[in-house]
Amino acid sequence: MVTVNVSAVGRVSLARGLPVTITLDKNLEDVTVADVKAAVATKFPRFYASRQKLTLKGERKALADEITLKDTGLSDGGELTVKDLGAQLGWRTVYVIEYAGPLIIHPLIYNYPRFWYGALVPKSMLQKMVFGLVLAHFIKRELETIYVHRFSHGTMPFSFVFRNSAHYWVLSGFLLAAAVYSPTYDNYAQYVRGSLRDNPRFLWSCAALWLFAELSNLYAHLTLRSLRPEGTKTRSIPYGYGFALVSCPHYFFEIISWVAIAAMTGSYAAWFFVAVSTYILAMWALKRHKAYRKEFKEYPRERKAIFPFIL
To answer: What are the protein's GO molecular function terms (predicted)?
Structure first.
């Protein structure tokens, strides 16, 4: 039997009875941080486990759920501190919300040009193709979120959903749609007629590049899924298509698919989205690449993070 004292860091309105003493009917080497969170949630039902950040007293680093109290260095009767992380939302739900934005915004602007531009917009082949590619991309992302991705973290603060969604809802949603479906790109526009954007061979070449990148991205996601059994946080070194050159080929192929759309349109909005996305994905890739190299001593040293032979 183990006794743990849990006190609050800052204001914890959902657990006004803190500090509390929790008794668990296990040995010190068997009690995990998750067990302590569950016990706290039993005493304060509204203060559910994913809202809790448990730390050793006087420290700021969160303790991982799977770590035992013995591994933390805590002794029987020791003290942990808990912080309220705020309302939480599942990562899967967050991604579904993020990708839903363009799926709503693009059809609204594409199908109702009179409302947005004050006139009908006779659709060019370019506009029709971009509309189809964008919808296909985000439908794929939604399906991957539901059926393919496995997340190492169960939840995130609810407030973050607005920040995360802005990237897709504003940049690849409203900004891109408002630019590409405007009269500037319609069937009679000078910007389109007689240019590459009116050339079926060029447009289908861009679409072929987009398809290659999308399928490659999917394959990389499936590879990563195969490395993590459901319900676990297992991490392994990924190998295979794309991973021989970079740690995050799914990010690389994601960028390529948007470069294809940006090249097809020549739109400032599309290139701006490519630039912002490339920066964000590069930062994520560098972080993951560093984590791989730190965790696995045998990690291939010749791999780059996101761009083959470059970065």
So the answer is: very-long-chain enoyl-CoA reductase activity
Query: Which backbone phi and psi does 88 adopt, to 5 degrees?
Result: -115, 155
Give the whole-angstrom CA distance, residue 177 versus residue 106: 6
Query: For a pLDDT cut of 90, what percent of the chain falls above it?
Result: 66
Structure tokens at 303: 């791999």
pTM strictly above 0.70: yes
Could you tell me the CA-to-CA distances from 106 to 95, 110, 269 in Å, in that order?
18, 6, 14
The candidate with the shortest Cα–Cα distance to 52, out of 68, 41, 67, 66, is: 41
Please state the rounded mean pLDDT for residues 120-135.
96
Cβ–Cβ < 8 Å for 273, 171: yes
Tokens representing 309 are 């032979």
Phi-psi region of 37 (alpha: psi -120 to 50; beta: other; left: phi over 0): alpha
d(CA 284, CA 290) in angstroms, rounded, equals 10
Q: Which two tokens stand for residue 195?
A: 């240019």
Average pLDDT over residues 45-67: 88
CA atoms within 13 A on the CB side of 128: 8
Q: Does domain 2-86 have CATH number 3.10.20.90?
A: yes
The single residue listed with the structure tokens 């930062």 is 283
CB 102 within 8 A of CB 171: no
Which residues, 6+ apart, have CB-to-CB distance to 66 below 8 Å? Answer: 32, 33, 34, 233
The mean pLDDT value of the chain amounts to 91
Q: Where are the domains of the chain?
A: 2-86, 89-295
Buried b (16+ CB within 10 A) or exposed e, 275-299: eebbeebbeebbeebeebeeeeeee
